[in-house]
Amino acid sequence: MLLKSHKHADIVTAEMMHKNLTEEKRESRRNVARIVQNIQFLGRQGLAFQGKEDVDSNVLQLYHMRATDDPRMLDWLKKKTNKYMSHDIQNEMLEIMALQVLREVASSIRNGVFFSILADECTDISNKEQLTLCIRWIDEKLEPHEEFIGFYHIPNIKADTIVAVIKDAVMRMNLSLSNCRGQCYDAGGQMAGSRRGVAQQILPEAPKAHPTHCPGHALNLAVCDATKSSKLLSDALDITYELCKLIKFLPKRQGLLDQIKADINLEAAALKVICPTRWTVRGLSFYCIIKNYEAL
């Protein structure tokens, strides 16, 4: 009888431990799912994850805000370990989400079969060279899509380096370069060179991927050439630049202009600083000068 009593007690204890463990797992999954949702929200909105201090981070504050409807979440934050709130885990979750998005994009492109490559290199704010890669494709309804694939850090801007990065990105998306039907770059030597340019190096593997000068870049070059011979546009450019510098970079004068516009009931868009490189977006600066002419 005593032996049976001990066995029964062991069974009851094991069942209670199993029940507690199952409940603990369920609660952990639930809270980790909330963390994933927070990271997904911040990533979708392009918001910074971390603050100056961890206590001020957007992730933690968002979690606290959601805890107002569920106090059990606060108990999770009070844990010392296994909270899945570290920077490394957040970055890993974000990377998993990014890879899932790329998988879905790659699947859509494969369904469309054929695609074109758009690429350009630039220097970012940290003075590092990076390659921007996009893929353009047409769906079954003949609707065009242009998908941003990513920024790729490159050690140099040699054609061989850029070609290697493009091939690697296409391969990782499980796309066949033989299905490429177009290449779109600027007219730089490393991209459009007639011998060892990026376009020429890709053609042997994708003979139907005809290279094209970027339409936006070509339009800007054409407008620049067309305006060089126009004294009227040259003078307008100088006047617009000086007016913007006179007002936009001095808050006192900006405030005075706003007051004058209010006094004469002039509703017009604010002055726009003129773009130093792209002629095709300078029209908005000229337009704002015309609309604010009376106040100016």
Q: Could you describe the 3D structure shown?
A:
By secondary structure, the chain is an alpha/beta fold. It has 3 domains: about 15-85, no CATH class; about 110-215, Nucleotidyltransferase, domain 5 (2-Layer Sandwich); about 230-290, no CATH class. The chain has 11 helices and 5 strands; from the N terminus they run H-H-H-H-E-E-E-H-E-H-H-E-H-H-H-H. A 5-stranded mixed β-sheet has the order 3-2-1-4-5. Helix 1 crosses helix 2 and helix 1 crosses helix 4 (about 85-110). The protein is flat, with a radius of gyration of 29 Å.
Strand content: 5-15%
The succession of helices and strands, N to C, reads: HHHHEEEHEHHEHHHH
Q: Please, what is the average pLDDT?
A: 84
Main beta sheet strand tally, sense and closure: 5 strands, mixed
Give the tally of structural domains: 3
Low-confidence stretches: none
The name of the CATH topology of the largest domain is Nucleotidyltransferase, domain 5
Shape: flat
CATH architecture of the largest domain: 2-Layer Sandwich
The beta-strand count equals 5
Termini separation comes to 103 Å
What does the radius of gyration come to? 29 Å
The number of helical elements comes to: 11
* Widest sheet: strand ordering: 3-2-1-4-5
